[in-house]
Write a structure and sequence with these properties.
single chain; 919 residues; alpha+beta
């Protein structure tokens, strides 16, 4: 029985090609989603581990740091299986005498590094840390005060832990300045305790060499460290400043990391982490598992990417399944004579059914294998950061198994009902001439009506922006709660399947059960093409299954493409506008301190290519909403430079009225609604023991949705308010910049970074957008969805082409008869085009309308659920229009080309028969 199935596939490969193609395309997308997410995770992970060999850091704050105890912990950790390298540093503070003022000192962060440490490779300017010498980091402040070879006096405060009175004194040391050294970003981050920020910058793709904060840093050798500490311990004293020893741990990554098994890699690393934690706990060392945390992050991102993209791509899988059903139905109908002969020869219905199942199983395995390998070459088309080798190397057994199971299940589900119907044919009836349709009477209208009602309900909810959450019961009645929970669950499920239900119900009722649309088309066709349209209408009504299948498939694909393309377009627009709002303008300069900010702003504003610059100061204050964020601005200048969404500012001459005062403010709209405030009302804020009364002269921000939670910034106040603040009250200071058109942003950024030591970093919208768009952490899911659009177009065009080809092939006798009756090739093509093109146009309009409503509703849900001042919006960008035009062109081509080919072949066959009869 199974041998027959295999022989049947081998001998008639073309009969199974259509099923193979539809299943392979769906499997390729499904596997691409899984593998794209896994490969993205591997890419993000590789970016970090290639830049640093540090996996864990175990630190302690211990005033009694002895060499013996420190080495004991380090040696014990190095003995753990899987630990490849162990380094250590000691961070503490000393003071150096200030030559310009003998009564003052300069605080200095000292980091001790062993000469056999791997970290020394990241220190440029010295190969060996000599005993009794200190080396100043090149970016430290006051570096000009240190001359190589000179002896400087350092001091460290100590105390007696066993004394009854406060006994603090200074111990003095003479150290020779060994020179100036440069620390790479990895070593600097470890030395200053900023390693998490270093990892973050690598992960998000920002510049690893961002400007470093003001610091006074020097390094010494470990021998010099014990020269300082041993005399203190010998006197039973302790350092007043906390000593922070840190053990830097590198793991054998080849042993723990498996690209396709992030979860297993994390679990294996956590075992080592627990052992390190147990060893260090006795001496107060607490490890931080940076590699484990990184694995958790990339795995979470990968899982979220898989779930969201699979849910979004569900209509594509549904179309692949539906296409498989249609093609299988046509295929088994075409094999009626074969089925009849098998039944006559004694093959039982059950055996015949198993033959069909095995054929589908065999085809699905081949399609699954092709799909798994094909996705490795297709995913890089939308994820240029990945390559086929990386994708294949990160291919996991889980992904292979899931992809093959998906292929098998999809194939079996597609052929199950057609195969069951085919095996139930009567043997004599099966031997009759092949017929394209087996209508078998009218189909029940109840199921389509229910589907249409459910789909229409959700679309109406989207259309009128009705949210089920707004009807949440306030009482605790159990019956009411159960009814609401049921409603909420059904509504949530319909969020994903409503378009499919709507299309199926609408098309079944209004095409298969009603003659209304057919009469409308008949009048249009008759008006445009005359009597030739009669044959077209009759043929369409006789081939209703084909009409429904084509319409349903095209409508779903168009609705899906409108939704996804619009979502991607809207997401890109949302990211850009959110970034502009976050940075405040075209660019912003972050400062370490407020002091000198106005001078820096003036210098930036004077640069060529800069249209304007203004200072923005952030501080926090208490209010009726709790702690809120307040920003101090120069109103007139700020309004010309800052990014403000259209329609945000409400009030008369708001910025002019704010100028020159410290009491007039602009309040965030959501905060105003929450507190019940309006323009000209008064709000109180408190800082410490001082309370300030502020007059609301304007309101900014979008209209807050239900359950809006106000967030920063909530208040903008004029620049004169800065007089009420101490320097420690200021949380952040930045300068907003507006560029002139055509400004060289790269040159300006480099120039601004070197403008003043107080500048921490420079962020620019365009550069940040480019960084975001090339970072799979942020855009991986969107790019996979974009891949889904392409697959949807290919799948729909293949489906329409296959259905058209199969139907037209079965009608070649009818076409020949019409040709004998005197129909020209143009008339034949017109008849066939009328049967299909207008139905395709109808499906396009139906799918586009539903997709647009669905897209609008999705945007409203996101605007309600995401607490952001920036709203998502629907755009019809050039990219959107090009994609939509391409989809329309491809679907039309898939419809028209088979018709012309069929007419041409039929006429060639007719001419050949005429020539043979004459001979």
């Amino acid at each position: 029985m199974f041998r027959y199935a295999v022989k049947r596939i081998v001998r008639d490969k073309s009969a199974f090609f259509t099923l193979f193609l539809s299943v392979m395309l769906a499997t390729t997308l499904f596997s691409g989603i899984l593998q794209g997410a896994d490969a993205s995770a591997v890419s993000m992970l590789t970016r970090v581990i290639d830049a640093s060999d540090i996996d864990m850091v175990s630190g302690a704050e211990n005033r009694n740091l002895t060499k013996t105890a420190f080495r004991e912990v380090e040696n014990a950790i190095s003995g753990i299986e899987g630990v490849k390298s162990v380094d250590h540093i000691v961070r503490f503070e000393m003071e150096v005498s200030n030559f310009t003022d003998t009564n003052s000192t300069i605080p200095l962060t000292i980091v001790a590094i062993s000469n056999d440490s791997n970290l020394l490779k990241g220190v440029k300017g010295v190969e060996y840390l000599e005993k009794g010498k200190i080396y100043v980091e090149g970016g430290s402040g006051n570096i000009t005060r240190f001359k190589t070879g000179e002896i400087r006096i350092f001091r460290i405060s100590t105390y007696n832990p066993y004394g009854t009175l406060v006994d603090i004194r200074f111990d003095y040391y003479n150290l020779t300045v060994g020179g100036v050294v440069e620390l790479d970003d990895r070593v600097f981050s470890i030395a200053m305790g900023r390693y998490p920020l270093f990892v973050r910058s690598l992960l998000i793709g920002s510049e690893a060499s961002e400007k470093r904060p003001p610091h006074q840093l020097a390094i010494i050798g470990e021998e010099t460290l014990w020269e300082i500490l041993n005399p203190i311990y010998e006197k039973n004293r302790r350092t007043s400043k906390v000593l922070i020893p840190e053990i830097i741990i590198g793991l054998d990554r080849d042993k723990f990391l498996v690209p396709w098994d992030i979860a297993g890699s994390r679990n294996r690393i956590n075992v080592v982490y627990d052992k390190i934690n147990g060893i260090g706990a006795r001496q107060g060392f607490v490890p931080v598992n940076y590699l484990g945390d990184l694995l958790t992050l990339v795995q979470t991102n990968s899982q979220n990417m898989k779930i969201t993209t699979i849910i979004v791509a569900t209509p594509i899988f549904f179309v692949a399944w539906y296409l498989g059903i249609v093609i299988s139905d046509l295929s088994y109908n075409k094999r009626r004579r074969e089925i009849g002969l098998l039944l006559i020869r004694g093959v039982k219905d059950k055996q015949l059914f198993y033959i069909f199942l095995f054929e589908a199983f065999f085809v699905s395995l081949i399609a699954g294998v092709f799909g798994i390998f094909l996705e490795a070459f297709i995913v890089p088309l939308v994820m240029s950061e990945l390559n086929p080798l990386l994708i294949l190397s990160s291919l996991s057994p889980t992904t292979i198994t899931a992809s093959l199971l998906f292929s098998i299940i999809l194939s079996l589900l597609a052929i199950y009902k057609p195969a069951r119907d085919a095996t139930r044919l009567d043997a004599i009836d099966a031997l009759k001439e092949y017929r394209i349709e087996e209508e078998g009477g009218r189909v029940s209208w109840h199921e389509p009506a229910i589907a249409l009602a459910l789909g229409a309900y959700k679309l109406i909810m989207f259309l009128f922006e009705i949210n089920v959450d707004s009807f949440a019961p306030s009482s605790g009645n159990l019956i009411v709660y159960l009814l609401y929970s049921t409603w909420w669950g059904v509504d949530y499920l319909l969020t994903y399947i409503a378009p499919v239900l709507f299309f199926w119900g609408f098309i079944k009722l209004f095409l298969q059960h009603s003659t209304l649309i057919h009469r409308i088309f008949n009048r249009i066709f008759h008006f445009l093409f005359g009597e030739v349209s009669v044959l077209s209408i009759l043929s369409s009504q006789r081939s209703m299954k084909r009409v429904v299948a084509s319409t349903f498939m095209v409508a779903i694909i168009f609705g899906y493409n409108i939704l996804v393309i619009g979502s991607i377009d809207g997401a890109n627009d949302y990211i850009e506008r959110s970034l502009k709002f976050s940075l405040g303008a075209d660019a912003c300069v972050w400062l370490f301190s407020y002091k000198g900010s106005d001078e820096i702003s003036n210098k930036i504003a004077a640069l060529e290519g800069v249209e304007g610059a203004t200072v923005e100061v952030w501080f926090d204050a208490q209010s009726d909403l709790g702690m809120i964020e307040v920003r101090i601005i120069d109103p007139i200048n700020w309004s010309k430079i800052a990014y403000i969404e259209p329609g945000w500012i409400k009030g008369e001459k708001v910025f002019e009225n704010m100028n020159g005062t410290a009491e007039r403010i602009i309040l965030e709209n959501g905060a105003a609604k929450t507190l019940g405030f309006d323009i000209n009302d008064t709000i109180l804020i408190k800082m410490g023991v001082k309370t300030y009364s502020l007059n609301i002269i304007g309101i900014f921000g979008r209209e807050p949705p239900q359950n809006w939670v106000p967030s920063g910034p909530m208040i903008y106040v004029g620049k004169d308010f800065i007089k009420n603040l101490d320097e420690e009250d200021i949380r952040l200071t930045r300068i907003l910049i507006k560029f002139s058109q055509g400004a060289d942003e790269n040159r300006l950024k480099k120039f601004i970074e070197e403008l003043d030591p107080n500048i921490s970093s420079v962020d620019m919208v365009n550069q940040s957008l480019k960084r975001i768009n090339t970072n799979l952490l942020f855009t991986g899911a969107l790019r996979i969805q974009q891949l889904g659009v392409y697959f949807a177009v290919v799948l729909s065009s293949v489906g329409v082409t296959l259905i058209m080809s199969a139907i037209l092939q079965s009608r070649w006798k009818e076409i020949i008869l019409l040709s004998i009756r005197g129909f020209s090739s143009k008339q034949l093509a017109t008849i066939l085009l009328l049967e299909n093109v207008f139905i395709i146009i109808f499906a396009m309009f139906l799918g586009s309308a539903v997709g647009f409503v669905y897209l609008r509703g999705q945007n409203e849900i996101l605007n309600i659920s995401v607490q952001s001042l920036i709203e998502r919006r629907i755009l019809f960008s050039t990219w959107f229009q090009i994609n939509l035009a391409s989809i329309i062109g491809i679907v039309f081509a898939a419809t028209v080309i088979p018709i012309f080919i069929s007419v041409r072949k039929s006429l060639e066959r007719l001419n050949l028969n005429i020539i043979e009869s004459e001979l």
